[in-house]
Write a structure and sequence with these properties.
Length: 470
């Protein structure tokens, strides 16, 4: 029997960016100054930055060359038409409305389609998506399958929608109160968990039967396509490009944060099949983003995005990208660290409830663990739990979700396996001393999306991993 061979990244390093090597004492002061919120750390104080994969990927030589082809005309930039052609070829939608990033597309779509009193079902919430839906007067309804809320479940497609939950909502409120279903591929808050094509097809068929549109959050649709190829019968021999087109073919449009799959540092778009919605979107994009042929993006960035779309569907790239995530995940599993199963597409999600069972969820164990990880090894992750969930709008109480996670998100084409080894060793060190980590309490809370800017203090100010942070 042949031994499975190692693999290496399908690229070589041409340029390096130097990182700051901080001491533990420096990190103790930095996290205290940041109010124990990793979002408020300065990047110069971070060694391995796993806060997000959004806009943090490394562009290729072809993308950097594309920047020099930027047509910065205010109207009718050639780069817009190159981007439009790439989107149509790989995502298949009729109309392209560029935006500065994904949340710009979410805002426009929500303003057009949602009216006060509407309900918007989705396969688990995402923070900015849900907020835009609520600001437009809608109410988000979670219709993801129950397995998604169980971090130990090995179900291969935990991003799937539960058709019974969708039908129940239709029966309860009526199809006319449901403007669309928001379908996310590789569901972020569930741990980067994919949807099956069979479920996407069935979900769309049910919604369309009742006259309900389906809009895709295509941010990580190509990673989802990879899991379909690997896990779903009948797709092993299909290309990622073909699977991506099939995913999109069942939906009526998409919002896209191109800062993920498409390998650029800024940019996004709204893609729509319906002529009337697209026409209204082109009107609103002028109000909130920029002219309909640039939408808040420079011409050079649109050109880099067009190239990034082409590169993103290459199997060798996505295989190595997800392979690096799996490499880190397997090291943590072997060490007994509790993470979300199965390993997702864009990062490792540590189960903070199991990691820190002595810290009640009301004391934000995931936030505490993220802060402790930074202090230990200079590794910046982020919380995805009670802080991200926010407060109940009626009671004002903290929402305590079933998943209390620390996300270690791997940027594309940025770090080596050695960085993953260092990250794993830091997590394992904390695992061995986990009882020393203490909970946190809020000291400042903004009105919206509090996880970005909230500040915290330790419940026991004298003991944070046996560290005096005064």
């Amino acid at each position: 029997m042949l031994k499975k061979r190692s693999w290496a990244e399908p690229y070589k390093i041409k340029m390096v960016e130097h990182l700051t090597m901080t001491t533990r004492r420096q990190r103790e002061r930095a996290i205290a100054d940041a109010g124990f919120n990793t979002f408020l750390l300065r990047s110069r104080d971070v060694y391995i930055d796993l806060l997000t994969d959004s806009g943090t990927s490394a562009m290729s030589d072809m993308q950097w060359a594309a920047l020099m082809r930027g047509d910065e005309a205010y109207a009718g930039s050639e780069n817009f038409y190159h981007l439009e052609e790439a989107m149509r070829r790989h995502y298949g939608y009729k109309h392209l409305i560029p935006t500065h990033q994904g949340r710009g597309a979410e805002n426009i779509l929500s303003r057009i389609c949602i009216k006060p009193g509407d309900y918007v079902p989705g396969n688990m919430y995402f923070t900015t998506t849900k907020l835009h839906q609520e600001l437009a007067g809608g109410k988000f309804v979670d219709v993801i399958i129950d397995e998604a809320h169980n971090p130990d479940s090995e179900f291969p497609f935990k991003g799937n929608c539960d058709l019974k939950k969708i039908q129940r909502l239709i029966d309860d409120v009526g199809a006319d109160k449901i403007p669309y279903l928001s379908l996310e591929t590789n569901v972020n808050m569930a741990g980067g968990q994919p949807c099956s094509l069979a479920n996407i097809r069935d979900t769309a068929a049910l919604c369309h039967k009742h006259g309900i549109n389906v809009f895709l959050d295509a941010t990580r649709a190509i990673e989802n396509a990879f899991f379909i190829k690997e896990r779903e019968p009948g797709y092993a021999d299909k290309s990622l490009a073909d699977i991506l087109l099939e995913i999109c073919s069942h939906t009526d449009g998409c919002t896209m944060s191109a800062k993920k799959d498409s390998l650029v540092n800024i940019g996004g778009f709204l893609a729509i099949n319906d002529d009337a919605i697209a026409d209204e979107a082109r009107n609103l994009v002028v109000v909130y983003e920029g002219l309909h042929t640039y939408g808040g993006m420079a011409g050079r960035d649109m050109e880099a995005l067009a190239v990034g779309i082409e590169e993103s569907v290459q199997f060798d790239h996505i295989h190595a990208r997800i392979g690096q995530v799996e490499y880190l995940g397997h090291k943590l599993i072997e060490a007994g660290v509790p993470i979300v199963h199965p390993i997702g597409g864009h990062g490792i999600f540590i189960n903070a409830k199991k990691f820190l069972p002595h810290i009640p969820q009301s004391q934000f164990p995931a936030q505490a663990l993220a802060a402790a990880l930074y202090v230990d090894g200079g590794v910046r992750g982020m919380e995805r739990g009670a802080v991200s969930a926010g407060r109940d709008k009626e009671t004002g109480e903290n929402i305590l979700p079933s998943l209390e996670l620390v996300r270690l998100t791997i940027p594309r084409r940025v770090y080596t396996q050695a960085h993953m080894d260092v990250t794993a060793e830091s997590v394992m060190s904390l695992w061995d001393d986990r009882e020393k980590i203490v909970g946190l309490e809020l000291t400042y809370e903004p009105k919206h999306l509090r996880f970005f800017q909230a500040r915290f203090a330790p419940i026991n100010a004298d003991r944070v991993l046996n560290t005096d942070v005064s």
